[in-house]
Amino acid sequence: VHERDWDSSEHDYEDPDEDDGRCSEFMCGYHGASRHHFASRIAIAKRSTRLFFGYEVELVFDDFDSREQFMRECREQGLHDVVFERDSSLQADDEGVELIFPPYALSELRDPEGDFARVLQIANDNYSKTPKECGVHITINLDTMLAAHREQFIRAVYALHRVSVYVAQRDTDKTAGCTSYASYKEYGGTKYAAINRRDNGAYEIRIFAGSDDVATLVSYAEYIDAVREWVRTPDAPVFRSYTARADAMTTAAFRRFVTTN
Description:
Number of strands: 7
């Protein structure tokens, strides 16, 4: 996950600028939340050869009180790892919240009794919804891969445009506004490419549609993991650019990936 998500003050704070004048007991300002408790998990992710997935999920509730109730239940049930923030893409300031999770291994995401699943279940119980304009961002520790495999993973996500669109549930070239398959930025310039490399060596993937369904969210990580493992096999095709493609080689690669996964 981004370095910007890993440092700030220790406590949640109340924002006096809420539209209706009410202050949230649990919400933090845009990128203003505590990240000190992420440190140990981030250290593990940076050393591990396994993939870890740091999710950012944006939700909307019926009203201020429903949102507060969701966050209160999370804290009362000991779910302190998830951070609640505002985000500029959430137009409903009194009803919206961005959930930022520490990096989890795939096995932890799949665990129905794990923190990730429990937080989303509480959200569902409080009638959460997913804003259509918002997507799910997932940051991964790709720098644990060999450089050649890492580049092939990135290129595969772009080149396998159709399968990525199918899993992501949206065509980012057409419906996701700023996020584009057409570009890949290694440093700076924009954060709105489909995959972005951060200065700290993490990679953020921004192709996925918003969701509050645990199975859907976990399927995104499973897709990332499947592509990563696939490009490490000796018979995987060599993708030579980051351009989304529809040529014969990409069509054959698409069929091979779908067949083997």
